[in-house]
Design brief:
- The chain folds into 2 domains: 50 residues; 96 residues, 2-Layer Sandwich (Beta-lactamase Inhibitory Protein, Chain:B, domain 1).
- 34% of the residues lie in helices and 35% in strands.
- Strands 1, 2, 3, 4 and 5 form a 5-stranded antiparallel sheet that branches.
- The protein is rod-shaped.
């Protein structure tokens, strides 16, 4: 009689996947733990990606000071202003160009500003550049014949 009961119990456990109730509970707990670990791993990976991402704003200036934009800037007059007057008022130019019938003083101020977003897989940057220029033409005697300023005005 004992053998038949034992056989019936074994057969009942076999019908349930060959595991006892305690074994099934342990398996269920392990599956839940693995599911939680997977979710935690995804959350941890997401936090790592966010921590490795960055946003930045930047700006830089190059060239000469754009003193021709100052409120108290010297007013240059064609035929009267000399190269020495311009050099005294604005300092050395970015470039001096020699021509057959005179010379050119070229002053340049460059202003860059932008923003960037950096992720592990995707990066994006955008930059604006302003060029503030002043150009002075002189004849062979060093007298101003023409001058002009750019319409763009870089910050000082």
């Amino acid at each position: 009689m004992l053998r038949i009961d034992t056989l019936k119990r074994r057969q009942a456990t076999m019908n349930q996947g060959g595991r006892t109730k305690k074994q099934r509970a342990i398996m269920h707990a392990r599956a839940q733990l693995l599911s939680w670990r997977g979710t935690a791993l995804h959350v941890l990976l997401g936090l790592m990606v966010l921590s490795l991402s960055a946003c930045a704003k930047f700006s830089s200036q190059q060239g000469v000071d754009n003193l021709w934009r100052a409120e108290d800037a010297v007013q240059f007059q064609v035929g009267r202003t000399t190269q020495s007057d311009v050099l005294e008022a604005l300092g050395p130019p970015s470039q001096i160009i020699s021509l057959n019938d005179g010379s050119v003083f070229y002053y340049l101020r460059e202003y860059k500003s932008g923003a960037a977003t950096v992720f592990i897989v995707y990066n994006e940057a955008h930059m604006d550049v302003l060029y503030d220029r002043a150009v002075f033409f002189f004849d062979r005697d060093g007298k101003l014949t023409q001058h002009s300023y750019s319409t763009e005005e870089a910050p000082r």
